[in-house]
Amino acid sequence: MREMSSDEIMPEKNIILQLEKISRKIDRGKFRSSLKELSSLSVAAFLKSDFFALYAQAFQSLGYFKKAAGYYKKSLKYAWETNDRIKSLLGLCSCLRSVGNYERALKYMKCLERIAPRKDEVQLERAMILRMGGRLMESEKILKSLRRKFRLQKDLEAESFVFWALAGICRLRGDFKKSILHFQSSLKLAKKSKNPDMVGYALMGLAGARRVSGNISEAGKCYQRARKIFIKGEDLFAKAYGECGSANVLRQSGKLSGAMKRYRKAFALYKELEDYPDLGFVLWGMGEVYKKDGKLFRALRLFEKAEKYFSRGREERGKVLAMISKSHVLHFFGRTDEAEKIFQKAYKKALASGMHTHLEVFT
Question: What is the DSSP string of 39-59?
Fold first, then answer.
């Protein structure tokens, strides 16, 4: 085999150094400038797995989960080392889960488990996929096991994330008291770990649990604190999450015009990210505003559109909310038999998923 000259070797060394620099930049939250730098590089085949993985990480951190999934697939194509394959598959599973693609996320998870079934990161992602798929008991069992392990390891960030995930399960089940306690534990650990993003997401989770349990004032304060954390950053998903959550609080407080302004901001952000399940929640919220304002035909159209968006991802709670709201409006129109069928279908769907969403009519 021909030896490479020093002129041939140096450019590759420089590229490796640049990729390492970009990786550190992503860790510091400089996602857009990282993408700009990556676009100026041309790399050899043996570096393409890392190159595409960095693209994926930057897009994922911005909230472009669909784009990120595409780059993780490219990274996987060139991932010849086991660790590179694990990294690419983990990222791919996470992004597919985030856009509600349960079947594909589970498919790649099975590939991942064949390589590294016992790795904590793999089990954590499996738990999150199961949670998204409505398999709450299986997810909870894995999460509780990991929580004990992370506590022994004194991994504050990981334990904070597990509490956040468990809190979400409790909220879906209607156990708001336990959900709030778990979100508070997540927040406490996030603060100790000095991770501002985890603090922000814990605050938004806590806000959501407080809102659906009727504590509107405290929910609003939590969203305000979270939005202050994310306002200067580049995470568009977090910004959209904060806008939609704040809109829900305003709507539930009867401040309909303020709620609609926030929903429109959230809609623009989620549309940019091509996040259809979360667009569904925005449309549902806007429909509820119209319903409360007596604009029932507009409300019905939005509930129907929201239901379609929820169906593009595995968002069972969203489907139940949209169907129940739709049944209310149809009942107002005198289409009672149709409304009753839709309501009963939503009720059965909620029970089958272990949720109590059908009781959340006050939200």
Answer: HT----GGGHHHHHHHHHHHH
The type of residue at 260 is M
Are 29 and 20 in contact by the 8 Å Cβ rule? The answer is: no
Mean pLDDT over the full length of the chain: 93
Per-residue pLDDT reduced to its tens digit, 33-43: 999 999 999 88
Q: What is the DSSP string of 145-213?
A: HHHHHHHHHT-HHHHHHHHHHHHHHHHHHT-HHHHHHHHHHHHHHHHHHT-HHHHHHHHHHHHHHHHHT
Residues 311-331 as b/e (b if ≥16 CB within 10 A, e otherwise) read: bebbbbbbbbbbbbbbbbbbb
pLDDT score recorded for residue 280: 97
Distance CA 163, CA 171 (A): 12
User: Cα separation of 325 and 306, whole Å?
Assistant: 11
- Answer left, alpha or beta for residue 19, where phi above 0 means left and psi between -120 and 50 means alpha: alpha
What whole-number distance in Å separates Cα of residue 114 and Cα of residue 126?
13
User: What whole-number distance in Å separates Cα of residue 29 and Cα of residue 197?
Assistant: 10
Q: Which pLDDT tens digit goes with each residue over 297-330?
A: 999 999 999 999 998 888 899 999 999 999 999 9
Q: What is the per-residue pLDDT across 233-283, written as a single tens digit (0 to 9) for each?
A: 999 999 999 999 999 999 999 999 999 999 999 999 999 999 999 999 999
Q: What are the structure tokens assigned to 274, written together?
A: 């091509």
Asked if residue 90 lies in contact with residue 84, where contact means CB atoms within 8 angstroms, the answer is no
Opening angle at CA 35, ends 34 and 36, nearest 5: 90
